Amino acid sequence: MTDTVLDVRHLQVEFQTEEKPVIAVNGTNFTLKKGEKLGIVGESGSGKSVTSLAIMGLIPTPGKISAGEVWFRPRDKEQPVNLLQISEEQRRNYRGGEIAMIFQEPMSAFNPVYDIGFQLTEAILLHQKVTPAEARRKAISLLQEVQLLPRDEELRQNAIAELSGSTKNNSLFSDKEIDRYVNRQKKAILQRYPHELSGGQLQRVMIAMAISCNPAVLIADEPTTALDVTVQATILDLLRDLCRERDMALIFITHDLGVIAELVDRVTVMYQGKVVETGNTQEVFYRPQHPYTKGLLACRPRLDRRLQTLPTVKDFMEEITGADGEIIIKEKELDSDRLNPEIVTLEEQKARLSRLTVNEPLISIDRLSVGFPLKGMFGGTKRYFMAVNNVSFDVYPEETLGLVGESGCGKSTLARTILRLIPAMQGKIRFKGNNIVDLPFGSRQLRSLRREMHIVFQNPFNSLNPRISLGKAIAEPLKIHKTGGNKRHRRERVAYLLERVGLNPDWMNRYPHEFSGGQRHRVCIARALALQPQFIICDESVSALDVSVQAQVLNLLKELQAEFKLTYIFISHDLSVVKFMSDRIVVMNKGKIEEIATSDAIYRNPQTEYTRKLIASIPTGGLD
Description:
This protein is an alpha/beta fold. 38% of the residues lie in helices and 24% in strands.
């Protein structure tokens, strides 16, 4: 059909290993029409990103496209072109110009030694016949279009307001002075480096670069995975508006069906390199046919009710190896647990909280403040940026206290201060009734305290030394604190912990790169449990995981809490995840506490505008 801009037929991509070829994409078919938004959904390893890289001609070595066709219809040609049959030089003319891509991790996609202005204008100069000055003007216009830089009129209003505040002279400012201010602001944004921008801002620059040549097809590979829900909502709105205004087709790749529902027209579900289901968004969400799709839809925590445990994909299907070695997916029979999952009632939540709060608090935070010095005009450091500002709350034994807010609100700084990894400016931190704020770094008392307080960091790969096996990494706290007995006893402890978090004890001699993200998270949890602590902070510990793996990790944390009587502070920007895990929730904004209440009260009756904005930004998976 003439309105079809992309037609992928029987695409197969394989990667050569020492043992045998691994087929990452196996016979994938789909079409994309002009102006259409297609969602490709699946877990890590399903072949989503490899499919997009194959379309772009960016499959890394030792991978290769072993079969299939990718037909693309350029805007200036009537006949489609098979992108797999043209030379690399010809393909380069289409890549970036006609087909653009937003990569998953913007910080890795940008060169850290060049400012964003250079990298943005480079893409424009490569594909368009314009001068460097025209490229810079276009770059500024694009940054305004993606709402990273205010429009000219708003910049002029800001200029008048700032100039008025910096002088007592009330006379009107000349247009020349205002234009000079506006041009300085435009130049300043182009001169910023990637590390000076937040994740959401970098994602906007990536979108600006992708749309700089007005492509016919835009591929967005997990563009919102690690972003706050509020930033995620603005990025989704931006992509929706760009597609409508530019009549641009979109391929949106994600593992989160909740995000997909709010953006795309059609959905393709991939599992282990194959398309297992495709259809319009309404059909896939309300009448899913494949057990894998049903599992993905059920995995995400819901805001309208709280389950005792989250369903996982394995609850809906099982894999059977056929006589020819082919894996066959078989749907499990419906049982009572799946038909009627155990719901935690409001009465049960209140009874548990009443039982917990009878005890003395395990952690008590009293008017805690943490500030970072800012350089003044002449290099002085008299001003401070208050990352945590006069915060007070209690955490009771065996309670899970949720901590939510956007990036930069002070969640992680607060967590690290509680663990004495960052010094406090003022306030008290009482652990078991003892104020630990004034304990000297390196002291015996603080060292002893480390045995009872641990943290599971957001990025498990960065938390584990790539040169140390899993067994040694888990045993390291035992060795440092001179506990756990001899080498054999420590090895037995490591084996027990691996087994308890759902990993094979025989894997203790393997290294971090040999495991998936979800498995590495389990290793980090096992390491945190090594010294049998009472208190663990989970800092964004599931934010970048697939929804099914996330469900497994959340269920595991709950099981471990019940078994070892653990107390958690659970940090996340996703209120749906925090609501599932927490007894009470603390909402933070700009270093201060907005409100504290039970998880159900926060959702049903938020007291502040900020909390209401957080809740409204959460992808619900609805099609309204």
